[in-house]
TrEMBL record:
Keywords: Ribonucleoprotein, Ribosomal protein. GO terms for cellular component: cytoplasm; ribonucleoprotein complex; ribosome. One of its GO terms (molecular function) is structural constituent of ribosome. The keyword Ribonucleoprotein applies. This is Large ribosomal subunit protein eL22. One of its GO terms (biological process) is cytoplasmic translation. The keyword Ribonucleoprotein applies. The lineage of its organism: Eukaryota, Sar, Rhizaria, Cercozoa, Chlorarachniophyceae. Belongs to the eukaryotic ribosomal protein eL22 family. InterPro entries: Ribosomal_eL22, Ribosomal_eL22_sf.
Length: 132
C-alpha cells in the first residue's frame, strides 16, 4: 500500500489575514424627523461621543466614521469589529434620554445592515380598549 500525501491546512498565522472589510450601518429616522420630534444633530453628536473603540469613548479615530448622507439618516462606517446590535443599543439609550422610548421603536430595516425608527402602533391599542 502506498502512502498518499494528505493536504495539510495552511499555517494558522497566515490564514484569514485578508483585507479588513469596512462595515456600513445605516439608521433611518425619516418619520420622527418629518414630525420634528427628533433632532438629527444631537443624535449624531450622541453617537460620536458614546461609541467605544478599544474600550474608550470619544476615540473614533480612523476606525469609525459617522456622517449624514441625507437629513433623515445616519451612516456609521467601521473598519474592524463593530456590532449592529451595539448601534441599536445606543439608539435606544438616546431615545430613553429624550423621553421618546415609549413612542418610537428601533426595527431592523429591509437592508441587512440598517435600522429604522418607527412609531409604536398606539391607535390599534386604543381601539381594543374601547371595544372591551
Amino acid at each position: 500500500i502506498t502512502h498518499t500525501e494528505v493536504a495539510m491546512p495552511q499555517d494558522t498565522k497566515t490564514r484569514g489575514k485578508g483585507k479588513k472589510s469596512e462595515k456600513v450601518f445605516r439608521i433611518n429616522c425619516a418619520k420622527p424627523v418629518e414630525d420634528e420630534i427628533f433632532d438629527m444633530a444631537s443624535f449624531t453628536k450622541y453617537l460620536h461621543d458614546r461609541i467605544k473603540v478599544n474600550g474608550k469613548t470619544g476615540n473614533l479615530g480612523d476606525v469609525v466614521s459617522i456622517d449624514n448622507p441625507d437629513p433623515s439618516s445616519v451612516e456609521v462606517r467601521a473598519k474592524g469589529p463593530f456590532s449592529k446590535r451595539y448601534l441599536k443599543y445606543l439608539t435606544k439609550r438616546f431615545l430613553k434620554g429624550q423621553s421618546l422610548r415609549d413612542y418610537i421603536r428601533v426595527i431592523a430595516g429591509g437592508n441587512k445592515n440598517a435600522y429604522e425608527l418607527k412609531y409604536f402602533n398606539v391607535h390599534n391599542e386604543e381601539e381594543e380598549e374601547t371595544a372591551e
